[in-house]
UniProtKB/TrEMBL annotation:
Belongs to the thymidylate kinase family. GO terms for cellular component: cytosol; nucleus. Residues 13-200 form the Thymidylate kinase-like domain. GO terms for molecular function: ATP binding; dTMP kinase activity; nucleoside diphosphate kinase activity. Pathway: Pyrimidine metabolism; dTTP biosynthesis. This is Thymidylate kinase. NCBIfam families: DTMP_kinase (TIGR00041). Its EC number is 2.7.4.9.
């Protein structure tokens, strides 16, 4: 496949609250734009849609919803934009995504919902080519500004979420060995901002010239409930 037909890479940044995801995503977008590389930043939840506004109200503790309901709303918010994501990637633009389905599973499963049930609604969504997990302890995250402003920013919740992210890291690594797509890389987010930025760039740089082959699908082929 010629370079003109290469698609954009789908890169997801995940992590605990206050791990620096949004800061690093913005920094990476600026770096790519400075190199005249087409890139689009996508954040989930996307709070601009009808579903996104319901989620925003919930996260700000302005409304209450059943745990199953809010999980399905998060998934629906991703499905709202799935076609747009595919079209953008196929047009050759990198998508840098601040949170994705992995966060949906981690936060809902941390509340006691079955892991497999949490994963099921997102099966067949566009799969990222690279997942960057910014790892930080809940204790360290708590020291950062703005902590506790939203519903899930509680130390015990974040500790459970981190454990579930660890499970997904192991499963994704095992799947990557078999399929060679969907690489998961853990970055030490407790370092200085500059060190984290440098570590991220080392991993991202090989993806910036585009990828050959189709967009893959999340968790297809796995047993579902």
């Amino acid at each position: 496949m010629s370079s003109s037909k290469k698609r954009g890479a789908f890169i997801v940044i995940e992590g605990l609250d206050r791990s620096g995801k949004s800061t690093q995503a913005a920094t990476l977008v600026e770096r790519l734009q400075a190199k005249h590389i087409a890139v689009q930043l996508q954040k989930f939840p996307d709070r601009t849609t009808t579903i996104g506004r319901m989620i925003d109200s919930y996260l700000r503790s302005e409304s209450d919803l059943d745990d199953h309901t809010i999980h399905l709303l998060f998934s629906a918010n991703r499905w709202e934009l799935a076609t747009s994501i595919e079209e953008t990637l196929n047009a050759g633009t990198i998508i840098l995504c601040d949170r994705y389905a992995f966060s949906g599973i981690a936060f809902s499963a941390s509340k006691g919902l079955p892991f497999e049930w949490c994963r099921a609604p997102d099966v067949s969504l566009p799969a990222p080519d690279l997942i960057l997990f910014l790892d930080i302890t809940p204790e360290k995250a708590k020291e950062r500004g703005g902590y506790g402003e939203e519903r899930y920013e509680k130390e015990e919740t974040q500790r459970k979420v981190r454990q579930i992210f660890g499970r997904m890291a192991e499963e994704t690594a095992a799947q990557y060995e078999k399929s060679n797509h969907g690489r998961w890389v853990t970055i030490d987010a407790s370092q200085s901002l500059e060190a984290v930025t440098a570590d991220i760039w080392k991993v991202v740089e090989p993806f910036v010239e585009g990828l050959s082959g189709p967009i893959h699908r999340l968790w297809e082929g796995l047993d579902q409930p």
